[in-house]
Design a protein that fits this description.
The protein has 86 residues and is an alpha+beta fold. It has one helix spanning 52-70; strands at 4-7, 10-14, 17-18, 24-34, 37-49.
Length: 86
């Protein structure tokens, strides 16, 4: 992992992986923590870069942008097949 951080209460980690020709697929894991438990997590696959450093820079930029766009939204309000009871 080349980048790891906390931003606006979210934790993010660089989980980039090597691909063919010595290049790297930038990947980021973003976690919303509640004490010691993970409340939600997202994994984003990004572009392929020629170096791990470039991939890490992209990971940090995307993690912060995703958090800015999604912070304070109700992450548990997911679609469901259950009907509300009247």
């Amino acid at each position: 992992m080349s980048a790891r951080g906390i931003y606006k209460g979210y934790t993010f980690a660089d989980v980039s992986t090597p691909v063919e020709n010595g290049r790297y697929r930038a990947r980021v894991a973003i976690m919303a923590l509640d004490g010691t438990q993970t409340r939600s997590q997202r994994f984003l696959d990004l572009e392929v870069f020629s170096s791990l450093e470039e991939a890490g820079e992209r990971v940090v930029a995307v993690a912060r942008a995703w958090i800015d766009a999604n912070a304070f939204k109700d992450q548990l309000a997911l679609p469901t097949n259950f009907s509300p009871m009247d």
